[in-house]
Amino acid sequence: MGRRPNTVTTTNSKTIYLKKVGELLKGFRNKCGVTQQQVADKMKLSTPQYVSNIERGISPPSIEFLRQTSKLYGIPHGVIAASIGSEITNFYLAELR
Fold first, then answer.
1. Cα 21 vs. chain centroid, distance in angstroms?
2. Residue 79 forms part of a structural domain
3. Residue 13 pLDDT
4. Which residues lie closer than 8 Å to 29 by C-beta, 6 or more apart?
5. Which has more pLDDT, 76 or 85?
6. Is residue 2 part of a domain?
7. Helices 63-73 & 7-32, crossing angle to 10 degrees?
8. How many helices and strands (H and E) does the chain possess?
9. Whether the Cβ atoms of residue 25 and residue 54 lie closer than 8 Å to each other
């Protein structure tokens, strides 16, 4: 039988996954030369804190956030979704080893 994850492992896995997704989104933002403040302004957020929380892996990105960032960064949302999907796949494959 396979290993059954405990709460600590699941929590740690989620934290690691969120950090990887945040790093990926930060990389897209940096390649476009856009600041967190500019993202917040374009999305009509009161502060860039939400963007920062996502990029640091504290908060998961919402679907709407992903749609808006793909438009803002000029990257098809399918590319962002595929990149995130690749991160998920790589993360879980590493967990199985």
1. 3
2. yes
3. 75
4. 36, 39, 51, 55, 69, 73
5. 76
6. no
7. 20
8. 5, 0
9. yes
